[in-house]
Amino acid sequence: MTFRRYLVLAFVSVSAPLGDTFLDVGMKRIGPVSLSDVTTLFHAVSTPWIAGGIVLLIGFFASYLTALSWADLTFVLPATSLGNVVVALLARFWRHEQISLSRWAGIFLITAAVGFVTQGPSYTEHEKPAIAQDVEEVCHP
Amino acid sequence: MSILHHSGVTNAAMIASIVVAATVGDVLIASAMRQIGDLDEIKTHSGLTGAIKAVVTNTRFFCGVAAMAVSFFSLLFALSHADLSLVAPASASLTVVTNTIAGKLFLKENVDRRRWLAALCVCIGVVLLAR
Description:
The complex is a heterodimer.
Chain A (H helix, E strand, L loop, with lengths): L2 H28 L8 H7 L2 H23 L2 H21 L7 H18 L11 H10 L2
Helix pairs in contact in A: 1-3, 1-4, 4-5
Chain B lengths: L1 H35 L2 H18 L2 H23 L2 H22 L7 H18 L1
């Protein structure tokens, strides 16, 4: 694991909850949307908070795919779960919500889980089938 | 009593559909990315366009995205019938467990004691966060 790859995992953890929070702020500013006025949703996409949230969520998906191309799903999962912690911290320090003791315990457990997993190998190497190896040898003698 | 029981079964069925679809989606996308290979290397050789092309031309990737879409709409459906405080933590924590099992069974990942412990911690942590 290189420093750059840890940065990608950090972006996976932060971008989704930050994107969700942007969407939350944007939709709270717009107010409740009724079924008779669905066009408001199209207008919402062009507002800065919603547009920023969508960009962050696209960034999350791109970084999630990148991480899955060089790490196991069971390695990346705790990083995505860390998003729950980021949401709680954003709620506490940005939205000024109160966090109970049980939530702090939850934050500690998820952070500990990420700590456990990052200590181990990130990718399970599978042996290539014999035919594929032969083809490679023919192509690259 | 029977109404409560029915409600419990309905909630369980809705949560199960979210979890199953999300797990299928995650496994298919992870499998597709393993099939495609290291995106960093592809980007070095073929540029960003080559990397995007490698992803969007993969059938397994699209099946994974379709399963994720089913999971998302199942979540919306469940939220219209049940409380967010039940559906969100239950589906999130169960998905971590089912993904770990599916990672071991279908992706043949090396899920050692450390990863099982991490899945358990995430599971309990999500439930505590939702309280």
